[in-house]
Each structure stands twice: as C-alpha cells, then as structure tokens.
Amino acid sequence: MVTKRLMTLFIAFMISGFAFGQNVDQKTTERTQRTPEEMAKASTDRLSQRLQLSADQQKEVYALTLEQAKKAEERKELNRTRMEEMLKERDAQQEKLKSILTPEQLKTFDESRASARNNNRRTDRFRRGSNMANRRSMDDNHSMNNKRDSIRNEQPRRK
C-alpha cells in the first residue's frame, strides 16, 4: 500500500519535472530570438502595466528601451566578433605549439585538454541550471529586498 503511494508520487514528481523543464527551454528560446523592437515593446508593456504609464510616458519609455536594446545588440555583435578573433588566435597558437612539441608531449597535451573540456561541460550544465533558477526568481528577490528595506526604514535606528 505504502509502496504504491510512493510510486505514484514519484511518477507524478517526474512528470511535473519534465513539464517544467520544457517550459524553461521554450522561454529561453523565445527570449534569444527577439528583435530590439520586440524587446523594447515587451519592456514598455510590462512597465506600462506595473506603473500605469500615460500614452506620452509609454512613447518615451519605448524610445529609451529601444535605444538600450539596440546598444545591447551592438555589444552582442561586437562580443561575437571579438570571440571569433580570440578563437583564431588560439588556433594559431595551438598550431605553433604542435610544431614545438614532441609526439609524446603532444599526446599528453591533447589528453589533458580533452579532460579539461569534459570537466567544463559538466560544470557548465550545473551553472546553466542555477542561472535559470536565478533568473526566474529575480523578481521575487527584488520584491523581498524592497520589503526588507521598507521594514528597516520603519524601525528606529539604534545608537
């Protein structure tokens, strides 16, 4: 009887976990494919809802967030270009290093790089998961900080 309940709970937990994981992937994909205009509109809509902005304020906020989104897109492209340059430099350095090392040293070097890559992949998976959890709870943390600050402001200061 108890094992049937445990199995049912376990299965329900697993199903909910899979469903939750799929929603996160969809949100992440949607977020990365938006244009600066779409991001500015979404940001303006959120602020308008939260703060009941007037039509004039919405136009100003849209212009501000659009400008910021375009700058972010430019930085993203610049970072992509820099990364490509760094990879080319790294590849050139690797080729020079290969010409310097003996075959035994090269084998040891390649094995250590493969081991390091595998270790990085394992830790990246954990980091990505924790970052997603952090992003989801940022609004919650922000509201908790505001509550904490308001409580602190209400309390008389000790001397």
From TrEMBL:
Keywords: Signal. Residues 27-48, 88-98, 136-159 have a biased composition (Basic and acidic residues). It comes from Albibacterium bauzanense. This is DUF4890 domain-containing protein. Residues 25-48, 88-159 are annotated as: Disordered. The keyword Signal applies. Residues 1-21 form the signal peptide. The keyword Signal applies.
